[in-house]
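Notebook, student rotation project (T.W.).
Task set for the rotation: take a protein with a known small-molecule partner, predict the structure of the complex, and write up what can be learned from the model alone. Partner molecule chosen: copper (II) ion. Sequence and SMILES entered below by T.W., checked by me.
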Amino acid sequence: MNMKAVLILLVLALATIFALVCVLLTRGRAPSICQHQRLEQEDTDNGQSLVFADLTPEEMVQVVRYLQENLGVPLVDASRALPSDNCISYIDMQVPAKAEVLRFLDGGGARPTREVLAVLYFGNQPDPNVTEYVVGPLPTPTYHRDVTVQKYGGKVPYHRRPTLAVEYKQIAGFLRSQVFPTAPSFMHQVIEYNETSLAVMTTAPRGFQSGDRTTWFVLFQNVSGFFLHPVGLEVLVDHSSLDISQWAVSRVFYNGQYYRDMAQLESAYVQGRISVEKVKKAPRDGDFSSMKPRAPPATMFPVQYEPQGPRYSVRNNHVVFQAWSFAFGMSVNTGMRLFDIRYQGERIAYEISVQEALSVYGSNCPGGMSTRYMDGSFGIGRFSSPLVRGVDCPYSATYMDVHYLAQSQVSRIGKNALCIFEQNLGSPLRRHYSNLQSFYYGGLVNSALIVRSIATLGNYDYVWDFIFYQNGAIEAKVQATGYMSSSFLHGDGLRYGNRVWEHTLGTIHTHSINYKVDLDVGGVKNSLVAHDMAFEMARAPWSPEQQIERPRLTKKVLDTEDQAAFQHQSKMPRYIYFAANSKNKWGHQRGYRIQIVSFAGEHVPETSSMERAISWARYKLAVTRRKEEEPTSTSIYNQNDPWTPTVAFADFINNETITNEDLVAWVTTGFLHIPHSEDIPNTVTVGNSVGFLLRPYNYYDLDPSIYSHDGVFFTSEQDFTACEINSVACLPKKASCLPNFPLFTYDGFQNISRL
Ligand SMILES: [Cu+2]
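Predicted structure of the complex:
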């Protein structure tokens, strides 16, 4: 053995010993727990955001007591009210007027009076109606003001009222006690009916003209995932009378045939004159419709953690994340809403809020073909689900409760109805690797703040996200999941969708979502500008016989509401932005661009008798002058009377000039859903995601993300393994700790009310 070989062996032996010692040392040392200290965020809010805060349970108690004592009529609790009673439908925070809020936020003005919107059903009056009151001031109300006529130009007739849960219960009772017993043989032998074997799904709207309250109820086997188990029976109930003993069946549908009532269906059945399509009884777990995993848990999926604690702060309803700050709230009807959204202290948007979610269905069954769900009237906020740690939002997200008072005289708590978290999206926000001239790498991880709620509206679940990026962009995103709504497969059903199980037709439908975007870019007054590209034919200056098709920038100020209303079929300039009165360093008007991600088509033909009720869906984008009396693009009363819409968005567009004015963008986004076999048991979020972005356009002098503390830059000459040079190299030191996850809890099944 020569010296060289001895040396190599010695080195190898030493290396092995060293490696062993390392392993032993590491194994012997218990990993530390991540420091869960909140990084100091500069929160200059001083409680100002509370001007947008949802009502507290204490405030709700005060308001209910005030209403009970001061309306001069007895109020029945809406959870057990008859249509002929008076009751509180819901109360919500009355958003103060913008001018007043801005005086308070920006001008040192007084804090606006805190007021409440109280919506009452007056069934026990000579002229039954829905009345909206503004009640104030909180915390101890002393006045109420009827604002119905001022808001809607007239009284709200009682038939427009959204259907209470108790009304559905009363209808279920009517079907059970008076309707089904009139077809005993059919119900027993064909449907295998007993008291609990059927689930009922409502459709809406309810008829063909104002005043109608005639609803097709679709019957399903009452098993887990019942939405996929239609039995072929649908019943049209006229529940327009305030005297529930007057309710009646108007029509019955079974397996492609229509009958006057259940008695006629029974007699046809007994005489053997109907075609029976008996559905096999499904087990309680629904079999194919069950969401129970078909595989046991195996290796744990990846999770994110915050090695040094959250980098955002949430105080009351105010959030601060890096250069961002905003206030949030949850409307009973329309769901999440954000206010006073600022970047680097400068307001970019006054309000961004969900307005409506619409679904228009086709089918050869009556319930399916007449369904046009307007989810706001059911309550997108009210039906916010309790979010499940680690699935609905990251395990370590911040979970917030919401409180609401609807269809009751006591408030309810929506546990963990909202989550806020920072998410490392696992890709660069920007990067460059230079291998030319000089050698370096520069990059910034795309880590964004997300505010999320998920509304479960009957069969569907909508995941609502607002995402704040480090480059000053905001994204609004909605993803659809949950169960599809289905029809009983018969006849020419395949014209209306795909067959997805034995007797189940996945019915074709649209999803359309509307948002209100009240941008205030560099001040309240903005103009709307369109930039796009056109080709111009030019002769090459250096070789005039040659032609060049040269792209050029086209610019246009859209100066009227009509010019700024883009119907779905119309061509919209690819860059549309809210322009400020100020300019950036390079002399361009500072702006924020609206970029829409949508696959929506026609909502309904404009000739439809209900089109005006959903006329917001005509437009992928419509920019109007902001008006206090145009706060929302629709109304909860449109669902049950779309033929005389209480709010018709199309009327907002009346060719007013929109240059240098306070403007609102109404954005519609959506997609067509043709359910297919992979929608069983659930529709997946993948690919069913739409929304829009608000992106800076010449607003800053350069990309503000360059000021992010997360930036990474090193050259070939630097020691990029050193923590001081490259913060990612600090990871083994700073982030080698065990995440301190709280125990899993879930309150979603407490105090649940069954419909
Ligand atoms: Cu769908």
